[in-house]
Design goal:
The complex is a heterodimer of chains A (500) and B (326). Chain A is of the alpha/beta class and 500 residues long. Chain A is elongated. Helices cover 73% and strands 3% of the residues of chain B. Classes of the chains: A alpha/beta (500), B mainly alpha (326).
């Protein structure tokens, strides 16, 4: 296998100082590297390092606002997926862009079917399909419906579709994340074949061993900056983790209050299992903050949802203060003193069209009524108390909560559960998409609640956040608890457990 | 701690988009008052209100459904079955018991509709359409396709909803007014009403807040069933009889009235008073066409345009509020 160390031929694709920012916040900057024809290039980094953004720039889904993308040495503006396709770049994301109700054949030539005066000529498509399949060695039934295919096969359809459009560069975002091991092997083999035929491949993956096994060269990103572009053969999983993590650690102003040895266990879960998590057991004590770390899709959020009764469990049990909960439903869990701040405040957390006051009042409505009629005075004072506690700025009663800033929305989301402080607070992504000021406020709020005796489980894609807030950290991978670290834990150890 | 943070001055600006629809009604009323001599007579007003009753009852019920995020296209079929049952039960048990039992039949039919939609998880629009066809079929089976009348000695009492009872105002008008006020208060000031708004605005957020969303949906269908039954009894009261094809298509006029009033078809926003205004606008436009001797064919064109304007304004406003989110 010829692994080009330095580029001998003209690069098919080159990036020169590519950057992107949103509202003045830079998510990607100064990215410069070149990729040779037939090279497999691995793109690595933590959650939020900028890998997907970079891939989307190549695919034309978003437009870079700094630097240049060069094809065959010519600077090119990619402002839509059409532009990228015209230059021979195809982006294959995790959500496949196929029409599930139509056949494999129709999908491969989606939108570009052979035709005579507008009438489809499927025989011509079929000939071309057989050619393509022969070249790359796929075994696909052209008349099968895409919906009936296993994911691995559907991915092959997506790859064929890219080749049918004459793509020279394939960008794959986490292609193996949802694949079984055999399918993964098969896909990697296909990618090697394609590369040997001269197709250039850019692959983003969380699985380091996999990338090391297939890539010629790798680029590591951290916080939107390019840390290294080097030969894959020079690296091991450990050295990659070191590059991805870096050494800087941003300390938060406060640390969690020390936990009394006598603090009783409030929430205990044994062997929780459903289609997303497997045999998850954990316990949290009064005043303790337990952090759940892991990659996206590792089962962190699903664990919280299962604990809260929002997702069914097929096995396992939950007890609150030593009393097992039979047939956990959301209402039963709320009655036992649980509360959940969900991952997405827009989709799961807030009723954006209603006011902040109404949103805050919603979970505790039943406690302030006479014969079903809301006691407006009691509600107003409860809302005012909570608003002061979480410090929501802006009109609480006359404006939909959706009109407030992200930080204020997030505080309102916390406020919903603070009318009567919960026994157990499950918090999924406490500070996603909020500014730094609101972030500090929210962190302090969580620390104060724990100090006052609430048991907290916090999930975050930001490892710093989990490390700064938690007394103890559990690491999840593929739906299982794989490691436990007392705080302060070593960042690299946690990353290794999550990745390897 | 941040307890002493100064709350920003709370300016209660009158938001004109909230009351634009009232301005629209006012403009029509002023125009008709000036251009006709007959519009502002008490007889005309009394007639006008009476004409608004049946659509009004259906529309008030539909408001709760739409605010909670569902449509009920079965309401006019529920109206027919309940009225037929009501007339039959009136002949058996008398006027008062017959009316109460008709409402109960409406509640039961609404509960069935709601339960079916919640259990099968089909889109409420299609689900209630299918159920409306079933109910119409049931109505024909019950009557054998015939008209069902009350006995002649019951007729005077039975026509209470059609006849003037208070200063010329019909019983039906009073029934509508009471229903609107009660349901308006339910939506505005009860825990149930709050949950209806929450479920319609974001069902998943409501569920994760401990709201039993299926129960809320079944309840609004049941309430809508009662409203439909009341509307059916008003219609039956006018004719002294009930028959399987009564009220066909009225559910769509009712939804139009809800939308014209400014209740969002996306769910989660709206109010009963808006629907009352919407119903009155529709009725006044019809009345105006008559009084001005305009060709009533154009009335449909005007109504259609109004609906489009109302829906476009709603989607424009919701898009704008989404953009302004920081």
């Amino acid at each position: 296998m010829g692994k080009p160390t330095t580029l001998t031929s003209t690069p098919v694709l080159a990036l020169d100082g590519v950057g992107k920012s949103y509202n003045g916040i830079s998510v990607l900057r100064g990215i410069s590297f070149e990729i040779a024809p037939g090279e497999i290039h691995g793109l690595l980094g933590e959650n939020g390092a900028g890998k997907s953004t970079l891939l989307k720039i190549l695919g034309g889904a978003i437009t870079a606002d700094a630097g240049a993308v060069l094809f065959d040495g010519v600077p090119t503006r990619l402002s839509s997926p059409r532009d990228s396709i015209a230059h021979g770049v195809s982006l294959i994301s995790q959500e496949l862009a196929l029409v599930p109700q139509r056949t494999v054949l129709e999908n491969v030539f989606l939108g570009g079917w052979a035709n005579a005066a507008g009438f489809a000529t499927p025989a011509a498509d079929r000939r071309r399909f057989d050619e393509l399949c022969g070249e790359v060695g796929f075994d696909l039934d052209p008349h099968a419906l895409v919906a009936s295919l296993p994911l691995g096969k559907a991915q092959q359809v997506e790859i064929l579709k890219a080749l049918a459009r004459g793509s020279r560069v394939l960008c794959l975002d986490e292609p193996t994340a949802a694949l079984a091991e055999a399918e993964t092997e098969q896909l990697l083999e296909v990618l090697r074949t394609l590369a040997a035929r001269g197709t250039t491949i850019v692959i983003v993956s969380h699985f380091l061993e996999e990338v090391l096994g297939i890539a010629d060269r790798i680029t590591v990103l951290r916080d939107g900056a390019q840390i290294a572009t080097e030969d894959a053969s020079a690296h091991t999983s450990d050295s990659l983790v070191r590059l991805m993590v870096g050494r800087e650690v941003t300390a938060l102003s406060r640390t969690p209050a020390p936990l009394a040895d006598s603090a009783p266990v409030v929430l205990k879960a044994e062997g929780l299992t459903n289609d997303r998590i497997l045999d998850v057991s954990l316990e949290v004590r009064r005043g303790e903050i337990l952090g759940l770390a892991g990659l996206v899709g590792s089962g962190r959020s699903e664990t919280l949802r299962a604990l809260f009764g929002a997702d069914r469990i097929t096995a396992g049990r939950v007890s609150v203060s030593g009393v097992p909960v039979r047939r956990a439903t959301i209402r039963r869990m709320i009655d036992r003193g649980l509360a959940l701040v969900p991952e997405s405040r827009k989709d799961e957390g807030l009723v954006l069209r209603r006011t902040t006051a109404e949103n805050i009042a919603l979970p505790s409505l039943g406690g302030r009524q006479i014969g079903g009629i809301v006691r407006q005075g009691a509600e107003a004072s409860a809302v005012d108390r909570v608003v002061a506690m979480v410090d929501v700025r802006g009109s609480v009663r006359h404006v939909p909560v959706g009109a407030l800033s992200g930080g204020n929305q997030q505080k309102a989301l916390f406020g919903k559960w603070l009318v009567t402080p919960p026994e157990v607070f499950l918090i999924d992504e406490p500070t996603r998409g909020v500014d730094i000021g609101a972030k500090v406020n929210i962190h302090n709020l969580i620390l104060d609640l724990a100090a006052a005796g609430t048991a907290v489980i916090v999930v975050s894609s930001e490892l710093e956040e989990v490390m700064a807030l938690s007394h103890r950290i559990l690491v999840l991978r593929a739906g299982r608890v794989v490691a436990e670290f007392p705080s302060p834990a070593d960042r690299e150890d946690i990353m290794s457990a999550a990745f390897l | 701690m941040t307890t002493d943070t100064a709350t920003p001055p709370r300016r209660r600006r009158v938001d004109f988009k909230d009351f634009g629809i009232l301005g629209g009604l006012l403009a029509i009323v002023v125009y008709l008052s000036l251009s006709t001599t007959t519009f502002l007579t008490s007889q005309n007003i009394v007639n006008l209100l009476d004409q608004a009753v049946v659509i009004g009852l259906l529309a008030v019920g539909a408001t709760l459904c739409i605010v909670s995020g569902v449509f009920d296209l079965s309401s006019s079929a529920t109206l027919a079955v309940s009225a037929i049952a009501g007339v039959f039960l009136t002949t058996q048990f008398g006027v008062v018991v017959g009316f109460i039992l008709a409402l109960a039949v409406g509640a039961i039919l609404g509960t069935i509709t709601g339960t079916m939609i919640v259990i099968t998880r089909v889109n409420s629009f299609i689900g209630s359409l299918a159920i409306s066809i079933i109910y119409r079929g049931v109505a024909i089976v019950l009557t054998g396709g015939a008209i069902l009348s009350v006995t002649s000695d019951q007729l005077e009492a039975f026509r209470v909803w059609a006849l003037p009872v208070l200063d010329g105002v019909s019983g039906g008008t009073i029934l509508f007014a009471v229903t609107a006020v009660v349901l308006g208060l339910v939506l505005w000031g009860t825990t149930f009403g709050r949950r209806v708004y929450a479920v319609g605005g974001n069902a998943e957020a409501a569920r994760l807040s401990g709201v039993r969303t299926p129960l809320i949906h079944i309840s609004v269908f049941a309430i809508n069933g009662v409203c439909a039954a009341a509307a059916g009894m008003v219609l039956a009261s006018r004719a002294g009889s009930a028959q399987p094809s009564m009220g066909i298509g009225m559910e769509l006029t009712a939804i139009a009235a809800v939308v014209i009033g400014g209740t969002s078809i996306l769910g989660g926003a709206g109010a009963v008073w808006r629907t009352v205004v919407g119903v009155i606008i529709l009725t006044v436009i019809g009345n105006g066409f008559n009084l001005l001797r305009w060709d009533t064919t154009y009335q449909q064109v005007v109504t259609g345009v109004l609906i489009l304007v109302a829906v476009a304004a709603d989607s424009w406003l919701s898009r704008r509020s989404r953009r302004s989110r920081g």
